[in-house]
């Protein structure tokens, strides 16, 4: 192989290496864009959830809850139970 052929081969290898590097950089930038879009989407969802919580808590349904006596995984309003506990237990037996 002559010196011209060797120089041409080295030049092609450099171009090939540069192309691979450019592809890697473009792949990284596209991955970063996807990550940014996911982060923005998650932020929007969290913001919406927070606004819903604010709106719902501002309503008239701010009663305290308690675990329902005699039931598993059930909750009732505390003020309704305390106003007439015997009625609660009577309905529980029916």
UniProtKB/TrEMBL annotation:
Which species is listed as the source?
Solanum bulbocastanum
**Region described as Disordered: spans on this chain:** 1-28
Keyword annotations for this protein, in alphabetical order, are:
Membrane, Transmembrane, Transmembrane helix
Q: What name has this protein been given in UniProt?
A: Uncharacterized protein
Return the Polar residues bias intervals: 19-28
Q: Which PANTHER family match?
A: ERYTHROCYTE MEMBRANE PROTEIN 1-LIKE, HIG1 DOMAIN-CONTAINING PROTEIN
Q: Which residues cross the membrane?
A: 38-56
């Amino acid at each position: 192989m002559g010196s011209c052929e060797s120089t041409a081969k080295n030049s092609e290898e450099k171009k090939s290496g540069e192309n691979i590097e450019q592809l890697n950089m473009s792949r990284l930038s596209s991955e970063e864009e996807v990550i940014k879009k996911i982060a923005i989407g998650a932020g929007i969802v969290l913001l919406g959830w927070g606004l819903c919580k604010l709106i719902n808590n501002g309503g008239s349904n701010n009663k305290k809850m308690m675990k329902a006596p005699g039931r598993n995984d059930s909750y009732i309003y505390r003020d309704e139970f305390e106003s007439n506990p015997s009625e609660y237990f009577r309905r529980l037996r029916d």
